[in-house]
Amino acid sequence: MNFLISPLSWTTRANGEMNPNYESTYTFPNDFPALLETVPEPDKPSHPLFKSEVAKGTCRVMCFHPKSNITLPLMQIEEILEVIDAWIKELLELGPKFQWVQIFENKGEIMGCSNPHPHCQVWASSFLPDEPRIEDRQQQEYFIKHNSVLLLDYLKEELKTKDRVVLENEGWIALVPYWAVWPYEIMLLPKRHILRMSDLNVSEKKSLAIIMKKLLTKYDNLFETSFPYSMGWHGAPTGPEVKNCDHWQLHASYFPPLLRSATVKKFMVGYEMLAQAQRDLTPEKAAEQLRELPEIHYKLGGK
């Protein structure tokens, strides 16, 4: 396999700063941030229907690897561990100041990724965004009613049949969730009750790196392409005034658009945009297809 140097290594960025010739995972401020730490107060609304509030935050870019064609499934376990440790470092650094730290990856041009090098983003905000706010409320309501953690109870039920389980190791489960609407959607869950990524022990980080490599290899093997997706981590909220978050369970979600081939994707339009999403294949069928795929990458002779 030929290796391509990342276009962000040893280059001058839009703000005039020069990136170093980095040799492993490297994080730097986003030159075009959607969130800023210093913003002016909005004007007073002319009508109650037009309310706005200040949204403060910061945005960073994390390059996974110095070679632009070495994506996560092609990285060594030790290199993926460096990415996980970098995620944790960002959470520990930004968490005390911001209420939410969103780690996410848009992989592939089809998912709006503007740069080909393997990277993710870290956005920290002074507020709890809509999706985690809904998850927080639902998990808390379940915890109050049942005195147990929603996603751990869900995991126990999934493990009774394993119809939707794709991969499992000593610390983690990768499954197609019962409610999945994207064709090969995946939820990645730790087996132990864990609130945030910073709570992972050494063994859990290692088993996370292993299951990520296997899962993303299966993704690439499905249509023999660098499989596009949007993914992200959700854990308990952070911030200077952290409340009791025992109802939370750390998890990652992968939302890939490809449906039948490397060029045929699912479109969330029309009825699905205006009314309700529909499934193109069942979660059980998607899990079965992924389970049957090799765990060795097709570029390395796995197919």
TrEMBL record:
It catalyses: alpha-D-galactose 1-phosphate + UDP-alpha-D-glucose = alpha-D-glucose 1-phosphate + UDP-alpha-D-galactose. Its EC number is 2.7.7.12. Pathway: Carbohydrate metabolism; galactose metabolism. It comes from the Eukaryota. One of its GO terms (cellular component) is cytoplasm. The keyword Transferase applies. Keywords: Carbohydrate metabolism, Galactose metabolism, Metal-binding, Nucleotidyltransferase, Transferase, Zinc. Its cofactor is Zn(2+). Gene3D superfamilies: HIT-like. Coiled coil: none annotated. Residues 135-300 form the Galactose-1-phosphate uridyl transferase C-terminal domain. The active site is at 119 (tele-ump-histidine intermediate). InterPro entries: GalP_UDPtransf1 (IPR001937), GalP_UDPtransf1_His-AS (IPR019779), GalP_Utransf_C (IPR005850), GalP_Utransf_N (IPR005849), HIT-like_sf (IPR036265). SUPFAM superfamilies: HIT-like. Pfam families: GalP_UDP_tr_C (PF02744), GalP_UDP_transf (PF01087). Residues 11-129 form the Galactose-1-phosphate uridyl transferase N-terminal domain. This is Galactose-1-phosphate uridylyltransferase.
